[in-house]
Write a structure and sequence with these properties.
Largest sheet of chain A: none
Distance between the termini of chain A: 46 Å
Oligomer: homodimer
Number of strands of chain A: 0
Helix content of chain A: over 70%
DNA sequence: TATTAAAATGAGTTATCACTCACTTATTTT
DNA sequence: AAAATAAGTGAGTGATAACTCATTTTAATA
């Protein structure tokens, strides 16, 4: 069975959004670009109007506030990020699709990296919000985190049963995987100089596989 | 060895040029706290004055603009974070101090984590700036990155010569180490729920050691 | 204690920005 | 084509925030 490509989800969303006028789309695009370039607070609604080539009043036609405009941009991401992060793996499929640890890691991450690459700007806006909006951060996390832990947990447990993965607590495994993933994403978002993204990506899979491969020195140090 | 706090540095810095008054110190402290709590843009100068227990005019007595106030906080961070991140390891000490990979990882790591813990607020302010001020980000990076690459590189090369570390390009090794480090720091800064910091820390060293331990499957996949 | 200089004050100024609304232009319906 | 509805406009408004300055308070010095 073919899993739908992640990047397709999002493309759909922007275009299928009912009868959205060209000017309204221009406003969304300009907002996203500016929020990602300068940050939400540093972007004025007149900036947006100017970049989109519309009058300032037009910005407020569909979105009552500037915050509502930001949320309209984030909504499709929030809606899709959950199924993407916590893709549902049926127990049956596991053995067939992920006979080796490397196959598992590769499958998981090509998906997520593709999604991230297609939505770099949106992710920047999300991270900016998450950094200082404590309430919403906790709200979003409380929705996403349990699902990720549960879904990924079941895969990890399966691999553990087959002794294909290191025997560490699942939350610790997830943390190190996510650290590597976010480290890679940071490079994308910050456009750090001197990075060859393709090379990094291949490396990422190697490192993650290595982290997860069971071995002899896997006891956690410290008391 | 005790790691100093950045706060001490900037108080030092200030007391060098003339005596700093208690109120001016209160303003700096309040600014730092508020910038870390709410972000720079979301903090008004009247907020700062109120928190510091002074009149708003007093804020502008020493610092001509709000941006200058932020820079007065960032300057000592930028000035002192370099030698700390890129602590100089003398070639002689290397073999004695880091006879094993784990000794290296542990040393590097406890050092920097302790530093980070003592300066969480300052780090938050720096990261906010780094996120959207492209110019200054590149400026700071161009100063720090080469030093880190050079200093850490010499240690890594030493370990490579002794076959104590995996034979990957140094920049890729650093990337995975920094990813793990920053993943851990994110937990500190964002106060993510359900994390037992001590446990994470012990785990981190284990993971990093595992990543870096040379093995058989260390070829980087993909072309 | 008297004099002088620096520090602090807070009411006031200016500028910006999010947002509104009476009106015009475009599109759809009859 | 006329009427009705929706989309778009831009000058205008109130609020807020950065910043100023004439005056007062505190500290230093003679």
């Amino acid at each position: 069975m073919e899993r739908p490509r992640i990047r397709d989800y999002f493309q759909q969303d922007l275009s299928q959004n009912e009868t959205i006028t060209p000017k309204q789309r221009a406003i969304l695009q300009a907002s996203l670009d500016l929020f990602a370039e300068k940050g939400f607070d540093q972007t004025s609604t007149s900036d947006i109007a100017q970049r989109a080539g519309v009058a300032e009043g037009t910005v407020y036609r569909r979105y009552k506030t500037k915050a509502a405009l930001r949320d309209a941009i984030l909504a499709p991401i929030a809606a899709h990020i959950v199924p993407i992060l916590a893709s549902d793996f049926s127990e049956d499929e596991l053995r067939q699709r992920y006979p080796s640890l490397q196959a598992f890691v590769t499958a998981i991450f090509t998906d997520r990296v593709a999604f991230a690459k297609a939505n770099v700007k949106e992710l920047k806006v999300i991270f900016e919000m998450a950094a200082f909006d404590t309430e919403r951060r906790e709200q979003i996390l409380s929705q996403i985190a349990p699902k990720v832990v549960k879904q990924m947990g079941s895969v990890i447990n399966q691999l553990k049963a087959d002794h294909l993965i290191v025997d560490w607590p699942n939350d610790l495994i997830l943390q190190s995987l996510l650290s590597q993933l976010f480290g890679y994403l940071a490079q994308l978002m910050l456009e750090l100089p001197g990075t060859e993204i393709e090379r990094e990506q291949a490396y990422l899979i190697t490192v993650m596989t290595k982290i997860l491969t069971p071995g002899e020195h896997d006891q956690i140090t410290g008391q």
